[in-house]
Amino acid sequence: MRRYLHVLNTTDFRRLWAGATVSTLGDGMTFVALSWLVLSGPGGTAALGLLGICYTAPVLVGGLAVGPLLDRFDKRIVLIADSLLRAAVVMSVPVTAALGAMPDWLPFVVAAGYGLLKMVPLAGFPAAIPQLVEEDDLDAANALESLSFSLAMVIGPAAAGLLIDRIGAADVLLVDGVSFLLFALATATVRPLSPATTPGDRRPSLGFLARDRVIVGTTVAFMAFNVAVGMLMVTGPWLAGTRLPGGAAAFGALLSALAVGEMVGAAVAGHGRPGGQPDAARVRAIGTVQGAAALAFLALLASPRQVPVAAGFFAIGLLSAPMTVWAQSLRMRRIPPALHGRAFAGLRTLMQATPPIGAALVTPLLVGSHLAVAAVAMTLIAGLPALYLIAGRPVRDSAERLGSVG
Predict the structure, then answer these.
(1) pLDDT (tens digit, 9 = 90+) per residue, 342-371?
(2) Which superfamily does 2-195+207-402 belong to?
(3) Max alpha carbon distance in the chain (Å)?
(4) From CA 362, how far away is CA 227, in angstroms rounded?
């Protein structure tokens, strides 16, 4: 706890972290609201799969643009502009609904807007962390970022599930719009986060990343894991709507269980690095928890019993959070500061762009009610790449190509 309090005593980090937490709280409510709007519409399950694709596929386009922006401009300005734009996009739903003129296609457009701009905070916040805290505090700061996301996702989905029944899914989106405005306000109070410079102002090339097998290996493994997560994000509301009692509240409870697991896992991961030689230990630890998380997808086979299914969601979150914390600190130490914006945008774009593959793969399986096949597929897709990390191959391959890299 002392490590976290020490990091939060850094005023600018605390302000940015608090604003991001509030914004993510709204995001947690929004996915549930959008899903319920679509499920209650004419498209049903097939439309839910399309929503998942709209929510994630545009990440590829947005991620390519945000990296250079973060490396060339004050990160505060980029984050503020993103928050204001997304507030306008989200509020279009409750405004048109209040006027009685919301078209059926608008939730898909809002989801696509989320996907297009999603990489701005996902890359901007971690790119700013090394400018706000000392190197020894990176694990704790990255854990706090993960805790921020997880805490918001614990409260957000559960609150959305309850509020949908009382005020309607469209009005729940109004809360997210306000959360973006609060994030913009908090970010405006942070000191300037100017781009890093290099001798002669020569910016390193992204080709550096391709030559680092540690970064490549962990990124590919995370991409595969996120394919399974994309499958899970479609399967969750499908289970709530067809197999589990409780409806929207059941879906919110599943997402909350996932987030509680992430919160606990991040809290543990932020207290210290794995033992032994740092990079090798981190890579093997990442592979171990990823393999264990993959097995937790099999809990879906327990439906319609809600408790074991929720336990599986919890386990996935518990084991996946350390993956994020340890890998993010590893990347911050291995990547030159002048490349942080493009690197985090590029890597997170690759990792966040794979869930639509999962959404597309699982939709026909769920339409045919082949839940068992879907659960086994998630386990294999998420688990097999972990074996490469456990074997320590990325560290050995990287050492052969780069020599010792800190």
Answers:
(1) 888 888 878 877 888 998 899 999 999 899
(2) MFS general substrate transporter like domains (1.20.1250.20)
(3) 63
(4) 10
